[in-house]
Amino acid sequence: MCVDSMRSSALPRIIAPKRYIDSRGWFSETFHQRRLREIGITCRFVQDNQSSSKRAGTLRGLHFQVPPAAQAKLISVVRGRILDVMVDIRRDSATFGRHVSVEVSAESGLQVYIPEGFAHGFVTLEDEVVVMYKASDFYSPAHDSGIFWNDPDIAFPWPFKDDEIIVSDKDRQLPPLKEFVSPFAYDGNPLAPLSTSSA
């Protein structure tokens, strides 16, 4: 579990690691625990995951783990571009079921922090995309869960037609939001437009 030391870290946000550019290219510290703590993200990340998607329109989500194995995530794109989506699933939240999204690419170097209590998914915007993310708890099949990606109650405007989306059989069978009984507590911070923090 993550203990948030600042109100803003209880919400999804964009992280902009600094890049040092020269004639060879660039260098970036893509994970710096002390700098994350300075902006209020105090998670202890314990697992790194990586996915490779061959085709544009590949959708992964909307995923999360329920307590006691809930996960906060730190998303990076190693190759290509994605549209990253987060949905508020905290019970009694003033913004329950609402979403925010951001385009993330290897070129921009931006990262996305997703705290516990938010469903997460992304769709690839080009072929041959590699995504890497850190998780604050280990994968637990018993606590693995999700919400159907095309739920009309969420009504996210995916940038592909339904028949163009490539999605796993498992994700096609995820339940709608209205059938989900949330174990995530609302902390009084409604979902807000994504802010960017340097780290």
Task: Summarize the structure in words.
By secondary structure, this protein is mostly beta strands. 5% of the residues lie in helices and 36% in strands. It has two helices and 13 strands; from the N terminus they run βββαβββββββββαβ. The chain has a six-stranded mixed beta sheet, with no helix packed on it. The two termini are 21 Å apart.
Produce the secondary structure layout.
Blueprint: E1 13-16, E2 19-22, E3 25-28, H1 33-38, E4 47-53, E5 59-65, E6 73-79, E7 81-88, E8 99-105, E9 111-114, E10 118-124, E11 129-135, E12 144-146, H2 169-172, E13 196-198
Parallel strand pairs: 1-13
Antiparallel strand pairs: 1-9, 2-3, 4-11, 5-10, 5-12, 6-9, 6-11, 7-8, 7-10
Observed structural traits:
199 residues, mainly beta, five-stranded antiparallel beta sheet, 13 strands, 5% helix, globular
Low-confidence stretches: 4-8
Strand content: 35-45%
Separation of the first and last Cα atoms: 21 Å
Average pLDDT level: 94
Order of helices and strands: EEEHEEEEEEEEEHE
Could you tell me the radius of gyration in angstroms?
A: 16 Å
- The tally of helices reads 2
Broad structural category:
mainly beta
Largest sheet: 6 strands, mixed
Helix content: under 10%
**Total strand count, please?**
13
Write a concise synopsis of the structure shown.
By secondary structure, the chain is mainly beta. The chain has helices spanning 33-38, 169-172; strands at 13-16, 19-22, 25-28, 47-53, 59-65, 73-79, 81-88, 99-105, 111-114, 118-124, 129-135, 144-146, 196-198.
